[in-house]
Amino acid sequence: MAATETAKKWGMVIDQNRCVGCWTCAVGCKEINNEPLGFWWNRVLTAAPADTTGESSPPDAANPASDSIDVPQGTFPNVEMAYLPVACQMCDDAPCVKVCPVGATFRRDDGTVLVDYERCIGCRYCMAACPYGIRVFNWGDRQQPVDFTIGYGQDYRTDGRLVFTPDRPRGVVEKCTWCVERIDVGEQPFCVEVCPTGARVFGDLDDKNSEVAQLVDAGGATQLLPDLGTDPRVFYLPVDSERSV
Amino acid sequence: MATVETPAPRLVPFGRVGNGVVAALGVLVLWGLAAWIYQLTQGLIATGMRDVVSWGLYIFSFAFFVGLSAGGLIMASAAEVFGVKSLRPLSRLGVLTAAACVLVAAMTIIPDLGKPQRVWELFRYPNWSSPLVWDIIIIIVYFVFAVTDLTIMSRRTMAPSKRAKVLRVMAYAGLPTAVLLHSITAWIFGLQISRPWWNTALMAPLFVTSAILSGTALIAVAAVAAQRFDRIRLPEETWRALAILMATAVAIDLFLVACDYITILWGNVPRERAALDIILPGGSWQALFWLEWVVGGVVPFLLLVVPRYRKRVGLFTLASVLTMVGVYAFRIELVVGGMLRPLVHLAPGNALGSYRLGRTVFQFDGIYHPTWVEYAIVTALFAFLALLILIGYRWLRPVDREQQA
To answer: What is the DSSP string of A71-111?
Structure first.
């Protein structure tokens, strides 16, 4: 980012009332980011609806609804289910940034947490430190579904640091970038753009008129595993919470 | 003790049996080296680790090697700081094992790295908030310290009174260094809020205690070997001190583990129970519980505190080895309890980061089976450690000759 530009405070809201569990965001993410076979930066998890009365919402991740996708929790007829799309939570106090021994994982002023492919030594401490399990490692040589370039397909650097490359080096960690190459030119992250139900909203949390700021300020928005104090920039609107805009 | 004649460092020939052992260890080291070269050509896909269980045999062996190094400063400081004179004959042997163990521990990190060629970046771009950076610094400090200590201990030219004074200062300085080494290694795990099993303030005390336990056990085994093969005779009170030290460490270690268990069981917080239940009897890794509590806990404790058993060399050696087995089981628990069950535990789970046609790429509960590559490399590291200690022993002859029968 240019130093003269005032940094935005990027944030994302995911409305679980609208999410139908179609995985379009996950597949779109895989495509635009040239993710190798076996990699998912973004997944749509099957959860139980949030308890909107308690602080523990969204769904208590320690108590899964089921070990299979699309299977609700409970006994018929009292069954319930919600979808929880999970990619990088872009924590304000990111454990991965704190543990990276060489500063390969870093946080920009706008809040995006990125990995420098040229710096990472592959110790995987960040994978141990991430509470959300969103990081993936290049264990071997990347396998691509097709032998031609799809998606973004080129290197992207920020402050000279390689934060995206379609040619994944073996032995480095990678993760969701909020499509840094897109948001830097004023576009939306691809998952937001492709969501068929408009369940995802992305924008500047500092801009009080932005939809994302209004949704967060309206109350009812929660973060994933909020008790850990990582303060994610991804907010969820739990099922049955009132959407005020 | 100032009259002790310290032999000049000189590599004494091993003899037939010794040569055979050295050759066998050498073969294991070469085999491990070959496995590592194979791993370098394939990447870490050659291991059993994947995205859910992303740390494995290398990391817990690393933690084990760090722990083994504790023996050195205990032997040296026991005599100087705590006045346990009976352990003085073992102080040089102790520091020798400390230097060897911490060197092997540092080496163990290398095969775990996805980009070992970038390891120099740790010094070029250190991120000071990372416990891994603290650990690398303390490992280097500890290694340099142990080598310096060993050098002073083996110098014949230094006046005995001056040497005793220097060693005393070294013993006092070494104690906090050793405590820091084990604490920082514990904090690599203990500070992580993402892993309920690790995230306990008990982690550092547990690491220090288990390090004292396994470090002393290593010295005990080495001392038995020295007595058996090198015609060294150690006084009865030395064996007794070793046994008391190990028995006490086992008891404190199990007490700390029990404190952890009772806190988790009584509190019954689901995410903490989930990790503990994997290890408790009935869990999928309950073998670790029995290894830690019975095989490496109660059994060696009894063998060490009952004088009738302790005085039999075979049972004493067995007890020492069993305590090390127990400590190793505790290290395996780190990975199992910490990583098998992710905090966000929702279907379909995490992607694996690898792909095979017809297989799912998602894993709900972590699965970890180390591959032959990991076993070969870790076996080689154990063999290399044994080689270092053997050669160091023959070179420095660290157990004082005056004890000979």
So the answer is: --EEETTEEE-EEEEES----TT-HHHHH-TTS-EEE-TTS
Choosing among B346, B350, B357, B360, which should be mutated to test the A contact, i.e. which has the most A CBs within 10 A?
Answer: B346
Q: pLDDT tens digits for A124-133? A: 999 999 999 9
pLDDT digits (tens, 9 = 90+) for A29-65: 999 999 999 999 999 998 877 543 333 334 445 455 5
Minimal CA separation from A208 to chain B, in Å: 31
Q: What residue ranges define each of the domains in chain B, with the CATH number in brackets?
A: 15-403 (1.20.1630.10)
Q: Does B264 touch chain A (CB under 8 A)?
A: no
Strands A105-107 and A113-115: antiparallel
Query: pTM to 2 decimals?
Result: 0.93
| Model confidence pLDDT, tens digit, residues B153-181 | 888 778 888 888 888 898 899 999 999 99
Count of residues making up chain A: 245
Which chain B residues contact residue A61 at CB under 8 A?
A: 343-346
Q: What DSSP state is assigned to residue A222?
A: B
H runs (alpha helix) in A132-172: none
Shortest CA distance from B361: residue in chain A:
A38
What ipTM is given for this predicted complex? Answer: 0.93
Contact (CB, 8 A) for B375 and B28 = no
User: What CATH architecture applies to the domain A10-60+79-237?
Assistant: 2-Layer Sandwich (3.30)
Q: Which residues does chain B have within 8 Å of residue A129's beta carbon, measured at their own beta carbons?
A: 192, 194
User: pLDDT tens-digit profile of A159-194?
Assistant: 999 999 999 999 999 999 999 999 999 999 999 999
Cβ <8 Å between B192 and A95: yes
Q: Using CB atoms, pick whichever of B129, B344, B364 lies closest to residue A98.
A: B129
